[in-house]
DUF5610 domain-containing protein (Oceanisphaera profunda), 196 residues
Amino acid sequence: MAVPPITGSQASAAVRVDAKPVQAKDKPEQKEQKAEFTASRSEMKAQSNKNIVEAMFGGGKQGDDKAMNILYSEIMSTINAELGADHAITPNKVAGQSDDYWSPENTAGRIVDGALGFFETFQRQNSSMGEEEQVEKFLSVITKSIDKGYGEATKVLDGLKIFDGSIKDNAEATRSLIDDKLAAFREAKLGKAEAE
């Protein structure tokens, strides 16, 4: 004898009327265990993050270099976003460089050289402006980009709890040297009398 298939209405009728929905109620012990597990998991994550930061930035010179790489990368990415990345000096192009590559002087030099490399293009794109206006407008754009990148980099380093000591000193020295180099560019383009 063949059994006919069950239809939707027959299936509904088969549900027990006295069945109660299953409720997920934790017992007090389970809640306590869950809280302990969450707390220990958070502690383990915090310790892991601390170990990663110490491995990356602890240990003197190498850590300083990595922090300067972050500073450089953030500043250059904001400049590139503003002006275009065609001639950008990217972190891939600077891998494996000499020991003093990330010194404040060399880092500032690369940032300024990278930024000023866009000046001729900027002049062509703004040929209706006079030279003084071109220089001032270009420096305004570059300075805002550098400020933004520097701010983002220091926020990252501060968030990692490493923006102090030699890392902070190097970052501040780099920023000061950038300002000096941009002022020298302005003076070279517009002359000493106008710069004052």
